[in-house]
Design a protein that fits this description.
By secondary structure, the protein is mostly beta strands. Helices cover about 5% and strands about 45% of the residues. It has 3 domains: about 325 residues, Methylamine Dehydrogenase, Chain H (7 Propeller), CATH 2.130.10; about 80 residues, Immunoglobulin-like; about 110 residues, Immunoglobulin-like. It has 3 helices and 44 strands. The strands form 10 sheets. It has a 6-stranded antiparallel β-sheet with strand order 14-15-16-17-18-19, with no helix packed on it. Strands 28, 30, 31, 34, 35 and 36 form a 6-stranded mixed β-sheet that branches. A 5-stranded mixed β-sheet has the order 38-44-43-40-41. A hairpin with a 5-residue loop joins β16 and β17.
Length: about 550
């Protein structure tokens, strides 16, 4: 993941089209969706929404979620295109709007930092998302990336301090010291990832730090600026070196191997794909690189001014990426898979003992299943699915399936998040039911008042949001972007007892005009309600309804 200063510089760089290079291109369909379809004067820097996607990650709902430099949380699917939602920064949004890396927390929500305010935002994986903010433990830390650590807490890479943020939702936000950055470095930490050895691995300038959950640090020197890292299919940590045009791997002992790339490649992001290869986003030369663990590579070129700042494996088994230069979200099919691969988990968050349906490719004839480094009980299903019982654990752990054909690689889409954070419900207790959300009538008042009924099985503070999601078609994307109606109305309150409560939301004037223009066709409105469970936990219910004005 690129640091904000590097991102701004990359936006201004004019690069030659990669199609002119004699690089081999792997098979696979490529799809691109603009996050700012109509930049003023063709300048993405002038977009007020959707410009410069920062991070991409598969969510618990099976979609791919992303953040932008314009304070948006977005959602993408292969079938439906993209939707974007404004994060309510408030007064802080008048300055730096840059949002950082994404993580799925032990509460099943999406967590991401706001660079300017040093805190973490939480968004529910619903349409629309419901947001809350947790202030950081220190000021002006420049949080850059976040990951769910092996202790069940959120760990934050900070660009402006020689420390890692450590946050237990509903609890304390503390700082874990790191060795001082290399003299002359303009940033401390770029990215953070879980390693294969139970340590957090931190991308720094000319160094990689490995940190135990108790705070013990081992520092390893590398040649260049490490922009991103990930656990590879071979059980080693792989990293992208943006400034030295190279990709490397590092053993848990610190022994490194460097693979030089062509000048100007500027690898900015890296992930493990379902095919057992490394997939790398090139930050300047505009392409997606596939590299084997032996170091051989091919490149899929991307059209005009592409700088791929983030990359992940989606629940559909494809490679998803954020294109910084073109302000786009992309999807690339990896082609036929030869060995076992895990592409989706349902559910992907829960306590020990949760039975997870694992889907993927070549999952027949299973010999063993592991979650992290712990063997797990499983029930064989078909060549495309099986059921796995989660053993005791904490934090984020990849599920790996071993068959006669090999072992599935650890990807973002195969990672299970344990709900063991302090304040979470006990694994032996049944989780509280989500509030159900319905609309009391299939129409709205002429003034734009929407009446919603919430029913819940326990009292507590609640929040309700209504939104008109952006359609997947280009015409609707352009229209919705022009109308600027991602959030149609919100309301907050308290349920003093169980039962049903009616809530009235006043839709904004732009939304009412859109509904009026739609006439009898109506417009689909998404409703989500969040009930606060205390201890940093919440539960969400949602629904979609087609409404017309009376």
């Amino acid at each position: 993941m690129l640091h904000p200063m590097v991102r701004r510089a990359a936006i201004l760089i004019a690069v030659a089209a990669i199609a002119a290079a004699s690089w081999a291109t792997p098979a696979g369909a490529l799809s691109l969706w603009p996050t700012c379809p109509s930049p003023p004067g063709g300048d993405y820097a002038l977009c007020t929404r959707g410009a410069f996607p920062q991070s991409v990650l598969p969510g618990p709902d099976g979609a791919v979620w992303f953040t932008t430099a314009r304070a948006n949380l977005g959602r993408a699917t292969a079938a439906g295109g993209i939707s974007q939602f404004d994060v309510p920064l408030g007064a802080a949004g008048s300055g730096e709007q840059l949002l950082g890396g994404l993580a799925v927390g032990s509460d099943g929500n999406l967590w991401f930092p706001h660079y300017a305010t040093s805190g973490l935002w939480r968004g529910s994986p619903t349409v629309p998302p419901l947001f809350s903010y947790s202030p950081g433990g220190a000021t002006d830390t420049g949080p850059q990336d976040v990951v769910l650590g092996p202790d069940g807490a959120l760990w934050v890479a900070e660009a402006k301090t020689d420390a890692l943020g450590h946050y237990v939702p509903g609890g304390a936000f503390t700082q874990i010291p790191l060795p001082p950055k290399v003299p002359g470095s303009f940033v401390s930490s770029f990215a953070i990832a879980n390693g294969p050895d139970g340590r957090l691995w931190v991308a720094r300038d000319k160094r990689i730090d490995a940190v135990t959950p108790s705070g013990t640090v081992s520092a390893f020197t590398v040649p260049g600026t490490v922009s991103d890292l990930a656990t590879g299919p071979d059980g080693l940590v792989w990293f992208a070196e943006y400034t030295s045009d190279s990709v490397g791997r590092i053993a848990t002992t610190g022994a490194t191997t460097i693979f030089p790339l062509p000048a100007g490649s500027a690898p900015a992001s890296i992930t493990t794909g379902p095919d057992g290869a490394l997939w790398i986003g090139l930050g300047k030369s505009g392409g997606i690189m596939r590299m084997t663990t032996g170091g051989s590579w091919t490149v899929t070129p991307l059209p005009f001014s592409s700088q791929v700042s983030s990359i992940t494996t989606g629940a559909d088994g494809a490679i998803w990426f954020g294109d910084l230069g073109g302000s786009r979200i992309g999807r690339l099919d990896v082609g036929p898979l030869s060995g076992p691969a895990v592409t989706a988990l349902v559910p992907s968050v829960g306590p020990a003992g949760t039975v997870v349906t694992v889907t993927g490719h070549a999952l027949g004839g299973v010999r063993s299943v592991s979650v992290g480094d712990v063997n797990a009980a499983f029930t064989a299903g078909s060549a495309s699915s099986l059921r796995v019982t989660m053993p005791p654990g904490a934090g984020a752990a990849p599920i790996r399936v071993r068959t006669a054909a090999g072992t599935s690689p650890p990807t973002d889409a195969s990672t299970f998040s344990y709900s063991t954070t302090a304040g979470a419900p006990s694994p032996s207790a049944a989780p509280p039911p989500a509030p159900t959300v319905t609309v009391s009538a299939p129409s709205l008042s002429t003034t734009g008042t929407l009446t919603v009924s919430i029913s819940a099985t326990r009292p507590g503070a609640f929040e309700v949001a209504a939104a008109l999601p952006v359609s997947g078609t280009k015409a609707h994307v352009a229209r919705a972007t022009k109308l600027r109606i991602p959030r149609a109305g919100t309301a907050k309150g308290t349920l003093t007892s169980t039962g049903t409560k009616k809530v009235r939301l006043k839709l904004n004037a732009t939304t009412v005009r859109a509904l009026r223009r739609a006439g009898r066709r109506g417009v689909k409105v998404e409703i989500a309600a969040k009930l606060d469970l205390g201890g940093g936990q919440s539960t969400v219910g949602q629904g979609g309804f087609r409404l017309t004005l009376r």
